[in-house]
Write a structure and sequence with these properties.
The complex is a heterodimer of chains A (340) and B (338). Chain A is α/β, with parallel strands linked by helices and 340 residues long. Chain A contains twelve helices and seven strands. Chain A is globular, with a radius of gyration of 19 Å. The chains are: A alpha/beta (340), B alpha/beta (338).
Chain lengths: 340, 338
């Protein structure tokens, strides 16, 4: 998403924290739009599943909207991202069309992957999204390759790779961060630490309290931040993206967040408490940003409601587009197994 | 001499298999700045088997890249570079180590094009030195090519001559799909005639190395050379064996095999990988499922690696994979069957 930074914070932003003051109104409006799109996309994805419109599983990112949108704010349209099995939010944050996403989700020919990939493999290659991934940690080494490719082609792009706390215990994490560091690749590693790898709590899975603590092993900057704080995520990502673009190498950002829904549709939440879920529900990244914006008179409630309503309409239209789209033709079953 | 040598301009001279690969890499890197070579010790060391040799001095460390010992990671680097416009050539030091890279090759490289609805391509080449005969024992001697032939989205080739090693590597670099090249380690020093031009030998085409009417021997990699040597001995006994070098195991050139079996009525398949669930089983089944089955005058025979890890002791190591004598004996047996 291209953004316009305020050259200097206007006088009325003087009492705002710098992370918020750095974002102009148009950027904030777009960030809110995308966060609402994600939230509504996920809610409607869940509804569609309940109504039998979707036959596969899904991994919803409700509660994690700020890390996806905040990270993508400083990216240019031709920058790359690599995503995870919980990737709908990243896809929208990078600028994908919800209609083509729903169509993919519904397995339709008009979907991003012509209905061949589904929720776990949505890719928007033209938009710089090199794909969600069904393998935990699968995108990490690929990101190092994308970074090497950028460096060899000298095209000044940046690659952001999202992954979860669970992926940080895969060997791929170590191999990818190490290579990105020794070759000073323009890669930003963004760990969305939602605190559980399926049912396995991070405290039980990892000997260090923060994933970003591991950055020291790769001599790269590593920061742990509140991943539900959009202006903070955006400011942190901007610093890392700028650093990567200057050729100074990779960074590791850990966004502490929480998935409000279960891991997937089979999750009965046996490993966490209702109280914990409720606590995090109260830390909703969208409401939090909206409250801050109203508190600082950046937007009034009416404006915020209009942004949300427009996003809801966009999602409703996206679903209609997907429903009306054709299924793939069975005569094309083996199409695209190989390129010619 | 392969029967299908492509007309190629320029001088023809003798090169080793390793030199032929190096020449192909050098020509590809000269012709296309997207091509680069990377892997463990491919730089100043020159590659564990000397294949990359002096390439780092010709093309620099930015295009001949030494990597950390991170097979999963470097396979992922190949995928990432390939989907964003480069033409990576990855050397996996010993093909056995590809077990550490299965995730990226099987789940990512092979499937990305399909999963993305045809909206991405993964033009990467992976070179994998494999095979037994060097006393390297069970973790450095395997022939794992059949595993990858089981994966739609990959192409798997096994050139057996310096001529094909060069021409098929150049074809692999033209190919928009991931191509795995299994290079038998005992072939690296073998010499053969190689044109100087950057000629191509197509992927997916077997080569009839010797014509014969009594039986067909299909071999892969080093085994096709052993089959040729066995056929020369069989000829002295009056048995005319036709020898086919399969060269590509995915996609298999069934037409060439079928045409030969229609003519000879007898089929022996020889490969170094473990016999069970291997290339021989696939070819046998393809014959059995087709009209070629009606042309068979005898049961199909397979010679493959023994059902065991490769042993260290040289006598045991030899006994664990088909040898020339085994091929001669199997051919005689096949000829006697009515």
């Amino acid at each position: 998403m291209a953004t316009t930074e305020a050259k200097a914070a206007p006088r009325e932003r003087a009492n705002q924290r710098p992370e918020l003051a750095a974002l102009d109104d148009a950027t904030l409006r777009e960030a809110l739009r995308r966060m609402h799109l994600i939230r509504k996309f996920e809610e409607e994805a869940e509804n569609s599943y309940m109504r039998g419109l979707i036959h596969g599983t899904m991994h919803l990112s409700i509660g994690q909207e700020a890390s996806a949108v905040g990270t993508c704010l400083p990216l240019q349209p031709d920058d790359y991202i690599l995503s995870t099995h919980r990737g709908h939010g990243h896809c929208i944050a990078k600028g994908a069309e919800p209609g083509m996403m729903f169509a993919e989700f519904f397995g339709k020919e008009t979907g991003y992957c012509r209905g061949r990939g589904g929720s776990m493999h949505i890719a928007d290659v033209e938009g710089g999204n090199l794909g969600a991934n069904g393998i935990v940690g699968g995108g990490l080494p690929i990101a190092a390759g994308v970074g090497l490719s950028i460096k060899m082609q000298k095209n000044n792009r940046v690659c952001v790779v999202f992954f979860g706390d669970g992926a940080s215990n895969e060997g791929a994490f170590h191999e990818a961060l190490n290579m990105a560091a020794i070759w000073k690749l323009p890669v930003v590693f963004v760990c969305e630490n939602n605190q559980y790898g399926m049912s396995m709590a991070i405290e039980r899975a990892s000997a260090v309290p923060n994933v970003a603590d591991r950055a020291v092993a790769y001599a790269m900057p590593g920061v742990t931040i509140d991943g539900n704080d959009l202006p903070l995520v955006a400011a942190t990502a901007r610093e890392a993206v700028d650093r990567a673009r200057r050729g100074e190498g990779p960074s590791l950002i850990e966004c502490k967040t929480y998935r409000i829904r279960g891991h997937s549709k089979s999750d009965r939440n046996l490993y966490r408490t209702k109280e914990e879920i409720e606590l995090w529900r109260s830390r909703c990244p969208i409401r939090r940003l909206e409250d801050e914006l109203v508190g600082h008179d950046r937007f009034d409630r009416g404006t915020l409601e209009a942004i949300e309503a427009a996003a809801n309409t966009e999602i409703a239209e996206a679903i209609e587009f997907a429903k009306a789209s054709p299924d793939p033709d069975i005569s094309e079953l083996t199409r695209d197994v190989y390129a010619n | 001499m392969p029967t299908d040598i492509q007309p190629a301009g320029g001088e023809v001279r003798e090169l080793s298999y390793a030199e032929a690969i190096r020449e192909a890499l050098g020509q590809a890197m000269e012709a296309d700045e997207r091509v680069f070579l990377f892997g463990e010790d491919v730089g100043v060391y020159g590659g564990a088997f000397g294949v990359s040799g002096d390439l780092v001095h010709r093309f620099g460390t930015e295009r001949v890249i030494d990597t950390p010992i991170s097979e999963l990671g470097i396979a992922g680097v190949a995928v990432g570079a390939a989907i964003t416009g480069m033409r990576p050539v990855l050397e996996i030091q010993f093909s056995d180590f590809v077990t550490l890279a299965m995730e990226q090759i099987v789940n990512q490289a092979a499937k990305i094009r399909f999963m993305f609805g045809g909206k991405a391509t993964v033009p990467m080449v992976v070179r994998l030195p494999g095979g037994s005969g060097t006393g390297a024992a069970a973790q450095h001697s395997q022939s794992l090519e059949a595993w990858f032939a089981h994966v739609p989205g990959l192409k798997v080739i096994q050139p057996s001559t310096p001529h094909d090693a060069k021409g098929m590597l150049l074809s692999a670099l033209d190919d928009p799909n991931p191509v795995l090249i299994f290079e038998h380690k005992l072939l690296y020093k073998m010499k053969g005639l190689v044109p100087t031009d950057a000629y191509r030998v197509p992927i997916g085409k077997a080569a009839v190395r010797r014509e014969g009417s009594d039986l067909t021997i299909v071999g892969t990699s080093l085994m096709s050379l052993k089959a040729e040597a066995a056929a020369a001995r069989l000829a002295e006994e009056g048995i005319a064996a036709e020898v086919i070098d399969l060269r590509t195991i995915r996609p298999i050139d069934f037409d060439t095999v079928a045409a030969s079996v229609r003519k000879t009525g007898r089929l022996l398949i020889v490969y170094e990988g473990v016999k069970t669930m291997g290339i021989g089983a696939e070819i046998s089944a393809m014959i059995a499922e087709s009209d070629v089955f009606d042309f068979l005058d005898a049961p199909i025979l397979r010679l493959g690696g023994a059902d065991m890890p490769l042993p260290y002791n040289p006598q045991l190591e030899k006994a664990a994979v088909p040898q020339e004598d085994d091929i001669v004996a199997a051919a005689r047996r096949l000829k006697r069957e009515e």
